[in-house]
Design brief:
The chain has 404 residues and is α/β, with parallel strands linked by helices. Helices cover 38% and strands 13% of the residues. The chain folds into 2 domains: 129 residues, Alpha-Beta Complex (Aspartate Aminotransferase, domain 1), CATH 3.90.1150.10; 248 residues, 3-Layer(aba) Sandwich (Aspartate Aminotransferase, domain 2), CATH 3.40.640.10. The longest helix has 18 residues. The mean pLDDT is 96.
Length: 404
Amino acid sequence: MDKLNNNKLVQKYSNLYRSVNEEFINIHPIQRGGLLTPEAYKALINYGDGYSICDNCLKGRIDEIENPPVVDFLKDMATFLGTDNVMPTAAARESKRLVMEALTKKHPKRKTVVIDSLAHYTTYLAIENNNLKAKEVPNSGEPEYILESENYENIINEVKNETGQLPLLIVLTHVDYKYGNYNNPKSIGEICKNYDIPFLLNAAYSAGILPINCTENDIDFIACSGHKSMAASGPIGLLGFSSHYYDDIIRFSEIKGNVTSKFFPNKICTVLGCPPVYGAPLITLMASFPTIVKRTQKENVDEESKKANYVINQIKDINGISIVGKLPKIHPLTNIKTECFAEIAKSHPRKGFFVRDEFKERGIIGMAPGISQEMKYNTYGLTWNQVKHFASAFLEIFEKYNLI
């Protein structure tokens, strides 16, 4: 085995630098909602060390730490989400996995999870990880990819007829990763309540950007992402859940060592004692929380939607450009087909990389490298001047290549 050379390690790892800075407008579709607030940057400096939040841990559980006020934060976050309880997790994907694991123990005969056909890949992997089966609810297809609530009821009955059991869980993606479609959970929640099936809302792309009230929408579980949508360092998620499922999620350890007689009755089995967010992830989420509450108020949500739709209205009539997903936009994550760019890429010396080059020359980054047929971007949190510059950059590039 080769020995490590410390000088080479220093050269390789001691000056890590990210080229994304204030000189550029970053429109990366999954980064806009996770940009840290000034308060979070300040907290990050103080709590960046691994177990820093645990300085004053008196009860052996991160969710019971009072300084910094983790206990208060979790209660306030539960109020914000309109649910009874909130527990930090490693990520929204981990929240989904934990719910499925808990429900599998509660309903061992139920083996099917009903999911929307716009679901994130981690929803599928959470199902697979728990040895369950996925049953998809179809969507309307191109160009809008709309989910209809009556299709959920149809699939529920299909599962019941095929397996003799109700589905274990119903999952709805609140805002999907591909098209940025907003899906209202109200009607799905009512269906789940009527059939007595647990309902999980995957709000990884929405909680912290759009308002959500679990109680008003009959949502039993909500999976959130701090690093995607709540201005926090990654990785951190949240699992919100109703009191009805408290004992299923907060399952305390009962094991005892046969030699040492060690036992850990204060530790939560489902998160292996404590969720692994001991420093930067949780403290930045807490520091950004007041901003999250403010930015999910109606006037701010409406303003962000206007920005997204402004860009769309500027470019939608260009030949070779088509907008994919429901319009007008509610969530600013946007998908566009760019056949005109794909045509140029065929003869361009930089192939599909020319798209990224052109935007970077205009101070805009976040485009997927080498892709010319389809683009995803997110204008969330940009100023109006930045939004207008982004739209103008499109028009300049179109004009440069004689597309308008």
